[in-house]
Specification:
37% helix; 10 strands; Rossmann fold; globular; alpha/beta; Pantoate--beta-alanine Ligase, Chain: A,domain 2; 6-stranded parallel beta sheet; 10 helices; 3-stranded antiparallel beta sheet; homodimer
């Protein structure tokens, strides 16, 4: 496994593997089983696997947890080695950004839900993802369904900009008790960790209602708020795959989303129906 | 020579020429000797040559000459054939754009000079150029120095987004009497055409002053305004290669720019020192 730090090193790797399939997993590090599942799938499906580890400043808003964001470089390297990653790209901020930058502005659906709470967040995500895509030139790039809106906006960018890359959406990985894995789970106290189970529980209730034939978004959302009544719920939303809110569940075209807050920690979860 | 209309056709060509050098000349058609010089250079330096002909709506502001922009598809095709172009890409607008688009925002230097008169123009230029770059995946892309600010912003985008493409700036091609070639020259009446010579004349005066040791931007600009006193000059500017205005000429790092208006027609010209 090689650890690359500079643009030149990475571009050399990309150029010399032009005729191989490259699987790419962009991450902000603090790798957990969710990331590992992405890496394993990339390993299964491609000749070369590149993982990037870069806590991207442009996707954090002022006052957000950029400085506190968990960093575990040594553990991350070991995990990548065990997963037979070929290359880790770990650049400095000054390697990725200059003073004068072309900005990417995500489409209107970047201003609802997560984008409403975090205006500009997705512009920063798309900016770094586009830079990384251009550097790695992957055949396939792997993203978790947990960041559903991010995944959708990246898919739209790839389509809009005609990038010759297959975006592979990967299932959410959960703890045995249902909590969706997140690098931010480390911020939770034991009590918060326990209460956080209500998030996935609310989604299971929603799925169960839908299984019984319920289609009304309102009925489903009310049920979920019921389940999470002891939590500070930021939003519950039911959207189609383009992230437009819908009044009725459309099978194979719906995502039910929750965000709940535990102190300063926002936990996201969702289920794709 | 093949004429490609769809994304799929072009992507197939790109994929099957992965290991060849591809020279790309993006144009809005109405090809003149300026374009031909770009195409010839591309032909000399690459195994495959792709020319795009697409009048890009997103770089025209409301009220600008989008509908009136000269279109000469059949003549353009003949020119490309004579220049031994391998592929012309001539998409429809609906092929290039959907209802929901990721936008590209050029950096601050896109709001001075041309960008001041045409706010948003360069965002549209970068958007279409980025799309085309992703489709064609050229080794080298050829741009005329005449659109100096466009060239600079494209170079900055390529650097910012780590696109593995060499941008090749090409010299301005002029009529024998000095008028810089432009697809918009066809709008000029005979009288306007004659008066337009003062533009290049003002630049030659500037170059001559610099040749005699003059460094002051103010002195040079005054001389140019003198030469063009019978014209409606929109601006004269002296900038460095990053398009920051400078008080003194810096050799090998200066561009002197003029824009003059003839009725609704804006003519650009410049000289690189």
């Amino acid at each position: 496994m090689n650890i690359l730090k500079t643009i030149e090193e990475l571009q050399e790797v990309t150029a010399s593997n032009k005729n191989k399939t490259i699987g790419f997993v962009p991450t902000m590090g603090a790798l957990h089983d969710g990331h590992i599942s992405l890496i394993k799938q990339a390993r299964n499906e491609n000749e070369i696997v590149v993982v990037s580890i870069f806590v991207n400043p442009t996707q954090f808003l002022p006052g957000e947890d950029l400085d506190a964001y968990p960093r575990k470089d040594e553990a991350d390297k070991k995990i990548c080695q065990i997963c037979k990653v070929d290359y880790i790209f770990m650049p400095e901020i000054s390697t990725m950004y200059t003073d004068e930058e072309v900005l990417i502005k995500a489409n209107n659906n970047s201003y609802v839900l997560e984008g409403k709470t975090r205006p500009g967040h997705f512009d920063g995500v798309l900016q770094v993802v586009l830079k990384l895509f251009n550097l790695v030139q992957p055949t396939r790039a792997y993203f978790g369904k947990k960041d559903a809106q991010q995944l959708t906006l990246i898919q739209q960018m790839v389509k809009n900009l005609f990038l010759p890359i297959e975006i592979v959406p990967c299932e959410i990985v959960r703890e045995k008790d249902g909590l969706a894995l997140s690098s931010r789970n480390v911020y939770l106290s034991q009590t918060q960790r326990q209460k956080a189970l209500l998030i996935s529980k609310s989604l299971y209730s929603a799925a169960s209602l839908v299984g019984k034939g319920e289609k009304s978004s309102e009925v489903i959302k009310n049920k979920m708020y019921d389940v999470m009544q002891t939590l500070e719920v930021e939003y519950v939303a039911i959207v189609d795959r383009n992230f437009n809110e819908i009044e009725e569940i459309q099978l194979k075209n719906s995502i039910i989303l929750v965000v709940a807050k535990f102190g300063n920690t926002r936990l996201l979860d969702n289920i794709w129906l």
